[in-house]
Amino acid sequence: MAFSFRGRTISKVAVIGSGQIGPDIALHFVKVLHGFDVYVTVVDIATDALEKGKAKLFKKVDKGGQTGAFKPNDVEGMKSHVIFTSDYNELKGADLVVEAATEDLPLKKRIFRQIEELVSPEAILTSNSSHLEPERIFDELKIKGRSLCTHYFFPAERNPAIEIIPGKDTDSKTTDFMMRFYEAIGKIPIKVGSRYGYAVDPVFEGLLLACVQCVDAGLGDTKQVDYVASKALGLNVGPFTAHNLTGGNPITAHGLSEMHDSLNGWFRVPERLKKLLESKSDWEVPGRGEKIEVSPEKEKAISEELMGAYFAIVCDMLDAEIITTSDFDLLISVALDMKPPFSFMNSVGVKKAFELVETFAKKYPPMPVSKKLKEQADSGKPWEILDVLFEKKDDIGVITIRRPKALNAVNSKVFSELNGYCDIIKNDPTIKAAVITGFGNKAFVAGADIKEMAGLKEPAQGEHFARLGQIASAELEKLGKPIVAALNGFALGGGCELAMCCTARVAPKGLKFFAGQPEVNLGLIPGMGGTQRLPRLVGFERAAEMIRTARPISSAQALEYGLINEEVGGDVLERAIVLARDIAAGKVKPKLIEMGPLPNVPDKLPDVDLGHLSKAIDALAVQAILEGGKMTLDDGLKNEAHIFGQCWTKEDNRIGLKNFVEKGAKSKAEFVHR
Ligand code: DAK
């Protein structure tokens, strides 16, 4: 067995370097790939580093076993699929090599010369550099097209963010493969243009410099500035503390000095950092729970200076066109767990952000003032940050819902963006068909955004949300071109409903927990067509059972019931694109949903065991299913919308939604059946 994906087979992954990050990278690979019998080999010439790395990895695996994060056979599987060795010959047979050695260009080049002699010409070679451009690392490779940088973040086995940096010689097929491969194994890959430091490190390292500047300017000591920085930028710990914890001071000093030449002259190694390194000491930072006093004036001054630096650094990268606003927001919020820059600017106002940058740049030349930021401020509009991405793959329009932190749950913003893309697809004659999918390997769409729904207070807000949802589903169904749902994971609630508006649906093989209508858990009935389309696709009895009990079905059951058209081994998106194209060409004719009333609608549904679920909400669900079956689909949808509104007249509706927001998805609401 091996991991086969998009025409490539990965049976062995090699990680070079058993230092700070190599074992963590190896742990991620072995965690997600050992079930496919993929072996992970960690190579290092230093035997003590190998021993330490192995002990660290095994300790984390054992801890996962003790906490229940890993099942006992996974613990054994992981340990038996990872090899630590000092023998470079063990690289032979590797299909993917990730070099994670020290950030030293000549060393990296030497390693890659060695690797190239040992692996097949097809193997992909990546460097987990944090700064160096791929063109510099790989310039001596014989086959450059298969090489690129993949920058992981601490802790690499758990932090899903990863910067993917192709160089000018990287084959676009290699980049596409790596983007999809990392997504398929649970990472959040973000493509970044080749520039020294990529996108994240100028922020991480630049903010340390900005903090030092605040101290130098007498705005506070390191403790005070660290405290204010964490508050102002939404960080768990301030930049000084983060540098102490990660041992990052020497790397940052090197990075800042290189950025001085490669990015702009504002970046430099401050004297305080030089002295700190000379004395081999750490920054003085607040202790855990220590109360730090800062006057309101100083707090404002530090916050504004740091915001000016942050916005200046990120907007400069926008000018350099190495990343988009939407990608940057997601990358920073996941990689560094801090306020995403463009949403942050929108929240303070782009004009205000521009003023902060101008003031900062005047005080600290030669920090440039971004042209794009000025244009945006002049436009009076906020930055556009998309949760739905659109890409044309030849004649197919591909829509991707990307909200990984909420399992792609759909909110009113997503509905609006979907509507915009439907217009593009309809009006572009070169687009013959479309595909809709979710980002990541876990969820297509885990439902409507329950947190947004629970916050809807005014009936007008509820109506606005409902209207946008109904427009989006109707737009998909009446697109006039085939649209295939590539259901890459959970299709729950509104997710299942969006999928049912499509011409056909495909899902990965073997998903145990896959699709369903769990709304009754929340004191709701399906509100975007679930009570109407599900009976039309899978039959009354099965649909009613799924809706009334909230029980999800597997991908195999979904295929048997007729909810999906195919179970796919490999890349579900790739298969969906082919199917969409075949449907558009008339080569495949999937069975379409019945638009008229259904025959043999029963007068009554059989009793089901509702367990803890609300009897009051169940009565509404049954009403919507039975009444709608006797109507046309259009009328049934209107009837469902009306009954959906009735949920808000029930006490159980408040109880269900509040329970999710306060106690999470796994907790059962205590319904009162009213
Ligand atoms: N909304 C918002 N956030 C969600 C979410 C959702 N539907 N589903 C998951 N999340 C968030 C979780 O809150 C969590 O956030 P943090 O706590 O990390 O901040 C994060 O995603 C990861 O979720 P879990 O930690 O729960 O992940 P697990 O793998 O353990 O579980 C799960 C995954 C999908 C089994 C679980 O999250 C779950 O049961 N989620 C709820 C699924 C659900 O009930 N879906 C139906 C929602 S109601 C309408 C249009 C549409 C609708 C109604 C009307 N009109 C047009 C009128 C639709 C209604 C619905 O879909």
Defining traits:
674 residues, alpha/beta, Rossmann fold, N-(1-d-carboxylethyl)-l-norvaline Dehydrogenase, domain 2, 2-enoyl-CoA Hydratase, Chain A, domain 1, 6-stranded mixed sheet, 27 helices, binds 4-(N,N-dimethylamino)cinnamoyl-COA
What's the quick description here?
The protein is of the alpha/beta class and 674 residues long.
Explain what this protein looks like in three dimensions.
The protein folds into three domains: 3-191, Rossmann fold; 201-379, N-(1-d-carboxylethyl)-l-norvaline Dehydrogenase, domain 2 (Orthogonal Bundle), CATH 1.10.1040.50; 388-663, 2-enoyl-CoA Hydratase, Chain A, domain 1 (Alpha-Beta Complex). The chain contains 27 helices and 19 strands. The protein is globular and about 85 Å long. It has 674 residues and is α/β, with parallel strands linked by helices. 4-(N,N-dimethylamino)cinnamoyl-COA (DAK) is lined by residues 406-407, 409, 446-451, 466, 469-470, 490, 492-494, 518-519, 521-522, 524, 527-528, 644, 665. 4-(N,N-dimethylamino)cinnamoyl-COA binds next to helix 18, helix 19 and strand 16.
